[in-house]
Specification:
By secondary structure, this protein is α+β, with helices and mostly antiparallel strands. The protein has one domain. 26% of the residues lie in helices and 25% in strands.
Length: 149
């Protein structure tokens, strides 16, 4: 019997060491609470394990994502180059994406990170729906991956 998306997602997280796995689960839970109607698009790719929070099932409608490798968790803003960052905490210099390194779930509750999440949500096009619950969708799994531990 094929695994559900939730079972697959748990197996991806289990590849990381216990402490990082716990942080991933905590951050995912916080993001689910923050964006309850978002679809979670999941990628277990060569370099990163990614959970994108999207307004639709299309990757191009991703607003923010958790990007994880053996070194830790990043909060990646898909259109980070265009959101206000008065506290200058966003990293990266690409034309579109910006990110913040997370040292744990508590960082998601910091005012400056919440402000970035609010700004990203405000510019989401299409916007998040107001009611319902998003689903988890496994988008890709790479055969070959960098070590997760």
């Amino acid at each position: 019997m094929p695994q559900t998306a939730e079972q697959q997602l748990k197996s991806f997280i289990a590849k990381f060491d216990r402490n990082l796995g716990k942080q991933i689960r905590e951050c995912r839970s916080a993001m689910r609470k923050r964006f309850p109607t978002a679809n979670e698009l999941v990628y277990d790719n060569y370099n990163f394990f990614v959970i994108g929070y999207c307004t639709t099932e299309r990757p191009s409608d991703c607003v923010v994502s958790l990007a994880v490798n053996a070194k830790g968790i990043g909060l990646s803003f898909y259109h980070g180059a265009t959101i206000p960052d008065p506290r200058r905490i966003l990293q990266g210099s690409g034309k579109q994406n910006r990110f913040v390194r997370l040292d744990g779930v508590a960082m998601l509750r910091r005012r400056e990170v919440e402000e970035l999440l609010d700004a990203a949500e405000a510019q989401a096009e299409p916007p998040f729906v107001k009611s319902g619950r998003g689903k988890s969708i496994i988008r890709s799994i790479s055969e070959k991956q960098r070590p997760r531990k």
